[in-house]
Design goal:
This protein has 356 residues and is an alpha/beta fold. The protein folds into two domains: 17-121 and 323-342, 3-Layer(aba) Sandwich (Rossmann fold); 123-314, NAD(P)-binding Rossmann-like Domain (Rossmann fold, 3-Layer(aba) Sandwich). The chain is built from ten helices and twelve strands. It has a seven-stranded parallel sheet, with helices on both faces. Strands 2-1-3-4-5 form a five-stranded parallel sheet, with no helix packed on it. The two termini are 41 Å apart.
């Protein structure tokens, strides 16, 4: 810059106009292409920005050397690390998912990148999915559909939700949204969270899940109370992040503690569960059944035993899906883009040590 050129005041860290980033990399999010209105909103939030589209394989349609921000959707670990090597100015990565294990690679942590996530974007549809499954199992819908297929007229007794205990493992935005809906239906709700006494200070602008203090919970405990939750819950809802501490938390030992006839509902991550132990518990143990929306290997192979069990409901990682989530995802990212340009704290910043 020469003495005759005007100096542009930058509030934020970006090298573009008024602290905005010079360039942003976008990889596909939520199994959908970016719509023209999504790109217009991103450009409006960061005037003058250059957008680089990145494929699932990590192929970019333009140079990456001046990219400072990335909206990371579907991208393999290897492709992400290759992109990091080609984007020396990248400082902030926004994950389009709530889970960030694919963004917190060793290379990303070595770069000390700021990582934010989509906490709050998916809470409502996932909570509605969980309540749908609790109602379906309580009112014996799978058996009623089977009787219909057999052309058999046989009334079945169901359970009222006032007589149901829902145990929630993880009280982030999804766990709180589940708790709010379950309690509104009259369920008794107990929960386990990493810190029983702590409330999250950072909440997404579109996170409609109430604070823990606002929920009608019967009990909230720390990780040491998980056995108690397993023993008293009719439905065990996994809504915890995947970390070193939570991987395989549902294993042979924990499954041996479940209330006879209880159902397990996983809307979090497949690696929270030892799947071999779960299959044994479903076939030979006291577990009543399982609703599984996520697995260690996805897509779930067609030869998987989970497809064959009559007490398992398998869905293709679709609990999050609704017509509103893409709008909320882009809105959260644009809100953070404006905060980035103004030098304000970003929403949903991830603690790399905690993993969420």
């Amino acid at each position: 810059m020469t003495d005759s050129e005007p100096r542009v005041r930058r509030a934020g860290p970006g090298r573009g106009p008024h602290g905005a980033p010079t360039a942003i990399a976008l990889s596909p999010i939520l199994s959908a292409r970016y719509r023209s209105r999504d790109l217009e909103r991103i450009r409006a939030a960061a005037p003058g920005v250059r957008i680089v589209m990145v494929s699932v394989e990590g192929l970019a349609d333009g140079p990456l050397d001046d990219v400072e921000v990335m909206l990371r959707g579907w991208l393999s670990l290897e492709a992400f690390d290759r992109l990091l090597a080609r984007a020396p100015r990248l400082t902030w990565v926004h994950s389009a998912t709530s889970g960030v294990e694919r963004a917190l690679t060793p290379a990303a942590r070595e770069r000390d990148l700021v990582v934010t996530n989509a906490r709050g974007v998916f809470s409502r549809p996932i909570a509605e999915y969980v309540l749908m499954m609790i109602l379906a199992v309580s009112r014996r819908l799978p058996q009623l559909l089977e009787l219909q297929r057999e052309r058999t007229w046989q009334p079945l007794e169901g359970a009222e939700l006032r007589d149901v205990t829902v145990g929630i493992v993880g009280l982030g935005s999804i766990g709180r949204a589940v708790a709010a809906l379950a309690s509104s239906f009259g369920c008794r709700v107990v929960a386990v969270r990493r810190h029983a006494e702590r409330e999250s200070a950072a909440r997404a602008v579109d996170d409609e899940a109430p604070a823990v203090a606002e929920l009608r919970l019967d009990r909230v405990g720390g990780p040491e109370t998980l056995p108690e939750l397993l023993a008293e819950s009719d439905f065990i809802v996994l809504a915890a992040p995947l970390t070193a501490e939570t991987e395989d938390m549902i294993n042979a030992d924990s499954l041996a503690k479940v209330k006879p006839g209880a159902w397990l509902i996983n809307v979090a991550r497949g690696r929270l569960i030892d799947e071999r132990a779960l299959l044994r518990a479903l076939s030979d143990g006291d577990l009543g059944g399982a609703v599984l929306d996520t697995f260690r290997d996805e897509p779930l192979p067609s030869m998987s035993s989970f497809y064959d069990l009559p007490n398992v409901i398998v869905t293709p990682h679709t609990a999050w899906s609704s017509g509103r989530v893409l709008d909320r995802s882009v809105e959260l990212f644009c809100d953070n883009l404006r905060r980035f340009a103004r030098g304000e704290p970003l929403l949903n910043v991830v603690d790399p040590d905690a993993g969420y």
